[in-house]
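Postdoc handover notes: sequence design on the structure in folder B. Input tokens:
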């Protein structure tokens, strides 16, 4: 597996399924797991520490509220970590976003937007990181962009009918 997709709770799946969909579309092999820095700290450390030797290239971590999972995973690996802020009920995901993005200097996490669009972008960004060194994935990304452009062309046709 090239990408590890982890989430703090099964309740994050509604968001994180969009990360998995993007990786499926781009044909990047991934594994998925529920792991929490707060609720399963020992497993979180073991996962992060063993990630590189297990062959992962990128970790995508989604969490909501006090979203410490991406940052804590990043502290235990030198693989790139992409954090997905899950939209929380109480604060609409602003808490998740700030918990993930405001890392101290020296331990970065790449941070995407809150919710579905961010989750999709996390998958694409991971593919782009891998595609920097992998011609097959780079080709899949090129096709993905081409499809997007074709969809915009369809929108233009549709707009003309309005
Ligand atoms: N932010 C974290 C972490 C963590 O950062 O370790 N573990 C769980 N959670 C978050 O708690 C929220 C509510 O979880 P429940 O729905 O299980 O109560 C989820 O969005 C999860 O990501």
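Designed sequence:
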């Amino acid at each position: 597996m090239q990408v590890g997709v982890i989430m703090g709770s099964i309740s994050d799946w509604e968001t994180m399924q969009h990360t998995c969909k993007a990786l499926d579309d781009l044909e990047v092999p991934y594994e998925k797991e529920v792991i929490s820095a707060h609720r399963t700290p020992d497993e979180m450390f073991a996962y992060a520490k063993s990630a590189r030797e297990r062959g992962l290239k990128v970790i995508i971590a989604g969490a909501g509220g006090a979203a410490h999972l991406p940052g804590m995973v990043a502290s235990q690996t030198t693989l790139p970590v992409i954090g997905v802020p899950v939209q929380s009920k109480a604060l609409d995901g602003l808490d998740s976003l700030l918990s993930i993005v405001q890392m101290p200097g020296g331990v970065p996490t790449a941070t995407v937007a809150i919710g579905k669009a961010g989750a999709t972008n996390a998958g694409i960004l991971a593919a782009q990181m891998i595609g920097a060194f992998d011609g097959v994935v780079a080709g899949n990304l090129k096709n993905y962009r081409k499809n997007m452009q074709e969809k915009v062309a369809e929108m233009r046709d549709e707009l003309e009918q309005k």
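Context for whoever picks this up: DSSP finds six helices and five strands in the chain. Don't rerun without checking with the PI first.
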